[in-house]
Amino acid sequence: LEAARRPSVIWLSFQECTGCTESLTRSHAPTLEDLILNIISLDYHHTLQAAAGEAAEEARFQAMAANKGEYLVIVDGSIPGPDSNPGFSTVAGHSNYDILIETVEHAAAVIAVGTCAAFGGLPQANPNPTGARSVMDLVKDKPIINVSGCPPIPMAITGVLAHYLTFGRLPELDAYRRPLAFFGQSIHDRCYRRPFYDRGLFAESFDDEGAKLGWCLYRLGCKGPSTYNACATMKWNEGTSWPIESGHPCLGCSEPSFWDAGGFYEPL
Ligand code: SF4
Ligand code: F3S
After folding, report:
1. Per-residue pLDDT tens for 188-213?
2. Which keywords accompany this UniProt record (predicted)?
3. Which CATH code fits 187-246?
4. Which of 123, 127, 139, 148 is the most exposed place for a label (fewest CB within 10 A)?
């Protein structure tokens, strides 16, 4: 990995909350510092770049010209589609859609980070006032990988980048173009509360005896059985904990149906 050439990465942020970048900054294997100083050349990123205004846009154009056909584009956030009012979300006076299409034209691959970029996410929730679309709705001629989650697990983002740099190709994907290494099993498959589920022992409220004893959260709306992500094994905050370990049901944040398919605290 150390001998490999650092690939140019252009990170585009559209209709998003910066949570995906916040998550990236918590990566510990590799750390963010190691990632951007030793592994990739992060040539454009609103939150992390020192440049601003015209200098920032010039850096994007330079990276595209110098690495034609080889650079990676990472997108977080959804994009108002070509039929939407272009003023809904702009960067440097240009619509998100125009910047996306312009930037991916000579990219080697596109990584959609977060459920908004991968599946539309919160901006696309009914009634979808901006006509929000996912990256794969709009980009049809590039390899696309979806690292979903709201936000994604930081090591899933960095792990995909490290895999691409090491092997020169995208990892094996599931039907939603998510890397199987991180999305190959459901939360329910690996949940430590699963023995309670199998024995029919469920918390019925957040403060009953079952909740205090750590029983299964299915009846409090846990979407673990239909959610594919690595939280149960990788956990969050350097392996400290994860939603279910802190007593909260999985909300299904890495699935296309995250916002519109049923209530968060309603059983399936
Ligand atoms: Fe499955 Fe959720 Fe119960 Fe864990 S808490 S066993 S993921 S239903
Ligand atoms: Fe998201 Fe469920 Fe993990 S809500 S953070 S996939 S436990």
Report:
1. 999 999 999 999 999 999 999 999 99
2. 3Fe-4S, 4Fe-4S, Iron, Iron-sulfur, Membrane, Metal-binding, Oxidoreductase, Signal, Transmembrane, Transmembrane helix
3. 4.10.480.10
4. 127
